[in-house]
Each structure stands twice: as C-alpha cells, then as structure tokens.
Amino acid sequence: MRKLLDSIYLGAAWLAALCMVGVLAMVLTSVLGRLLHFHVPGTDAYAGYAMAGAGFMALAHTLKKGEHIRVTLIIGRLTGGARKGMEVWALTVGVLLASLFAWYAWRLAWQSHEFHDISTSSDATPLWIPQILMAVGTTVLWLALLDDWVLELRGRRQHSSNEDTRHE
Are 60 and 143 in contact (CB under 8 A)? Predict the structure, then answer.
C-alpha cells in the first residue's frame, strides 16, 4: 500500500512538472508570436490553466516531503502526548477541509460539464477540462493528509527536520 500511495504522490508531482512545461511552452509561443508577428489565440488562458494545474497537482507531494509552510509557534513548544494530540487535531482539520475542497472542486467540474460552461477568452475551452486538474490535485492532497493522519495515529509518521523550532 505504501508503494501505491507514494507512486500516486510522485505521479501528481510529475503532472505538476508537465504543467510547468506547458506554462513555458505557452509563454514561449506568445513571445515568439510577438517577435515573428503571428498570434496563437488562447496562449494566456492555457498558461493560466497550466499554472493552476501545476499548483494543485504539486500539493500532495509537497506535503509528503515536509515542504508545506507550518506555523510551529505552539506545536514546537509541545512534547509527548500534547504534541501528538495537536498533530492529530491539525491533521483532522486538514483532512476535513481537504475533503470539502475536493468535493466542491469535483462538483464545480461536473457542473461546468453539465452546463457546457466555456472560457470567456478567445480559446473557448470547456472549463471542466482545466477544472479536472484542480479536482484531482485536491483529491490527492486529501489522500495525502488522510495518509499522514493514519500514520500519526499509529505513531509511524515521519516528522521532517524543518518542522523543529530552534530557540537561541
């Protein structure tokens, strides 16, 4: 199960990287278009879609690598059971919020598909297509938070070294 979960997180990170390549391709196309006097409609919109996709698809991998920003002002001072209790509480809130976010992201994509909602820019892209990236990204984030929650309850969660606070 661990290998499957880690491969899902890594796959989402690779999709995020692919989205970043898409941003680069759209920006280069736009720049070359200006230099060579041609226009490719929708490059700005597609760059935006790819940027949003990159952000959402990278959330779970970033969480699992311990790179999310955490405010450790309180939790850094706690030890033992108090720290574990605070970690479980924070992860529980995270799981609940991520599940709501994922639910509404999927609902938005579904409604955009049902109503045939399209982009207002010149590309006229069906909006459910880029919204799928947001829905998948938030679902994988929910899975990663749930994974951390279960690991924390079992006492197997690895705390990254950058979570530690140093008092000087």
Answer: yes
CA 61 to chain centre: 8
Instruction: Identify any residues that bridge with 126 across adjacent strands, giving them in sequence order.
Output: 118
- For residues 5, 68, 100, 128, the Cα torsion angle rounded to the nearest 10 degrees is -80
pLDDT tens track of the chain, all 168 residues? 999 999 999 999 999 999 999 999 999 999 999 999 998 888 888 999 999 999 999 999 999 998 888 777 888 888 889 989 999 999 999 999 999 999 999 999 999 999 999 988 878 899 999 999 999 999 999 999 999 999 999 988 777 554 444 433
- Comparing CA positions, the residue from 166, 102, 162 lying closest to residue 132 is 102
Single-letter residue type at 79: T
